[in-house]
Design brief:
By secondary structure, the chain is mainly α. The protein has helices at 7-14, 18-40, 43-57, 67-85, 105-116, 120-131, 136-143, 147-165, 169-182, 194-230.
Length: 236
């Protein structure tokens, strides 16, 4: 959908393949962490989001049939968790203002401060579209709303931000994209026990399957044995 998770890795991960699980999480967590860090404006909030995201995803992995399902789940739950965990942002520690420099730094800072003052969903739409460079459909999946709602949030955000930037709007958005791509990330590792748990569940499912057939076979044998024993006593 928007990162390089593959259907093949999803299929292998569902069967407990450790390498495939690590690849799925490596592909998923990098953009999730980047989005969480830029939208939250705090590394501690991004860490909390990613920690919960990893924990919740372990119960979902075996339910995904395709890579797009995994991508949609990660992008959606990243934004939803951000709404639960977000805290006030300090300009002194805002990752989007980290180690920036250049002739337009004053106007760039003004843009970031204006973004932070927007309502929650307008901030999300602005950063997801302009910094992460997602189209309306992807933003809608992440934000749990319609394409029309995303367009409305983005239009209003643009209406408020554009006058501050004037003719430098495109250049400053390009700089925002560069900063967004270079924010320091703290990526959690893939769950170490998930492969073991998946294999254990698969083993239990197999044993349950075998036990079910053995029970059916035992019932059939009992019925046949009863028929054999009772049969000779039946008088015509």
């Amino acid at each position: 959908m928007f990162w390089q998770i593959t259907d093949e890795d999803i299929a292998a991960a569902r069967n407990g393949n450790t390498g495939a699980i690590e690849r799925v999480y490596a592909q998923a967590l990098e953009p999730c962490c980047r989005i969480a860090t830029s939208i939250a404006g705090r590394h501690d909030v991004a860490r909390s989001v990613l920690k919960t995201l990893v924990r919740r995803s372990t119960g979902q992995l075996e339910k995904w049939d395709y890579a797009d399902e995994a991508s949609a789940w990660f992008m959606h739950h990243t934004v939803i968790l951000l709404r639960e965990y977000r805290k006030p942002i300090s300009p002194d520690h805002d990752p989007l203002l980290h180690e920036i420099g250049g002739p337009d730094v004053v106007q760039y800072r003004a843009m970031i401060n204006a973004i932070r003052a927007l309502p929650e969903q307008q901030q999300e739409a602005f950063i997801l579209h302009h910094a992460q460079r997602w189209n309306t459909r992807l933003c809608a999946v992440a934000m749990d709303c319609s394409n029309t709602a995303v367009e409305a949030h983005l239009s209003e955000a643009n209406r408020q931000i554009q006058p501050l930037l004037g003719i430098n709007f495109a250049a400053l958005i390009g700089f925002l994209q560069q900063v967004h791509r270079s924010v320091p990330l703290e990526l959690p590792a893939a769950p170490k026990t998930i492969a073991t748990k998946i294999k254990a569940r698969r083993g239990l499912q197999f044993l349950t399957y075998i036990a079910g057939w053995l029970l059916i076979l035992a019932i059939i044998v009992a019925i046949v044995a009863a028929a054999v024993l009772i049969g000779p006593r039946i008088e015509i």
